[in-house]
Amino acid sequence: MISFDYLTIAYIINFILLSIATYTDIKTREIPHIITIIMLIINLPLGFYLFGFEAIWAFLSTLILCLILGIGMGGGDIKLFTVLAPIFLFAGTILYIPKAILILIGISAGISAFYPMLNILKKYWKEIIPSSAYLAMVLGIIIYIISFYNVPYAILFVWGYIILSVFISRKVSGYKEFTKKAGFFAPLYLIGLYLLDYNYFVNNQVLLQFLVYVGELSLISIVIYALTGAEISSKKLVKDLKEGDILRDIITIEGNSVTVEGANILKRFKLMVDAEMGKNETENKKILMTDGEGLYKEDLELLQKLHKEGKIPNELNLITTYPFVPFVLVGYVVVLVLHYYFNLF
To answer: What are the residue boundaries of the Peptidase A24A-predicted C-terminal archaea domain, all occurrences included (predicted)?
Structure first.
């Protein structure tokens, strides 16, 4: 039974405000400033009343964390996590950041990543599943061999090879084709091991182990595919671009020369970090790229100008994005249910 104290009432009010923000985010991809202002007016004084200066430190430390995460997160999302921090101190803190907020961020990010990852699997499953079967077969064979020898840390080297293999398959088409075709020999591996060492096969549940490995390796492959440029993207005419659109392309302007280059997550992340440190731009060089906030008005004006001058193509690549606040709302509810009904915090 929930007792309706000040904190519980605040949680209910914040739930209503997050629900409104969810609606506006889905409809217009915007979070009204008035919502975060109301949440701040309620949460910060109440947090200070209930938890003292720890609530202030929670607010500031969460703001710093979210500004760091803001390399790939929208400003509205940063504000939501930050204004919730002062009333989420029931589980303690890590470096003054409420553990419950860290869990909330993790749940929100995990759910938001599910749909894009599912799309990557649907698009590349003919590559991912056979290659994962091949790697699971290699992993099973090596584990079988080292089970007879006490090789220290051997499994770490094996997994290192597995992950490296997925990266290489993304870059070397010949190796990718090899792993796809080799994966179809996995049933022969299972039958062969069954006939060769029945006791080992049964005692170690090799078939179940193989299926688990295929699942794990498929998940690893999806993540690596995303990191190396397999995000779900679409093309859009320059004249149709609007504020908030997130470019997958990076546009480098150096003197009169303009280059448009597609970039994966790793490269964009590096360039964003460099931009934060002031390394990207010089007097004669400007790099136009977008973070979680998307394109600004001045970016659109520059793109329109470059397009009229014939320096960029008619279409640019955009990263397909999804409203994030609904995932924050789900994470918010999950954290409170775990707290109130399961006493996990």
So the answer is: 210-318
Q: Where in the chain is the domain with CATH 1.20.120?
A: 6-112+325-340
Per-residue pLDDT tens listing for the chain (345 residues): 444 588 999 999 999 999 999 999 888 778 888 999 999 999 999 999 999 999 999 999 998 887 766 544 555 567 899 999 999 998 888 888 999 999 998 888 888 778 778 888 888 888 899 999 998 998 888 888 887 777 666 677 777 877 788 778 777 778 888 888 899 999 999 999 999 999 989 998 999 999 999 998 888 888 777 766 655 667 888 888 887 777 878 888 887 888 887 766 666 667 666 666 666 666 677 777 776 667 888 888 888 888 888 888 888 887 766 788 899 999 999 999 988 888 776
Distance CA 315, CA 234 (A): 10
- Pair 324, 25: CB distance under 8 Å: yes
Q: What's the CATH architecture for 6-112+325-340?
A: Up-down Bundle (1.20)
Q: Where are the alpha helices (DSSP H) in 151-240?
A: 154-171, 173-182, 186-196, 198-203, 206-227
Going by their DSSP bridges, the two strands 285-288 and 249-254 should be labelled as antiparallel
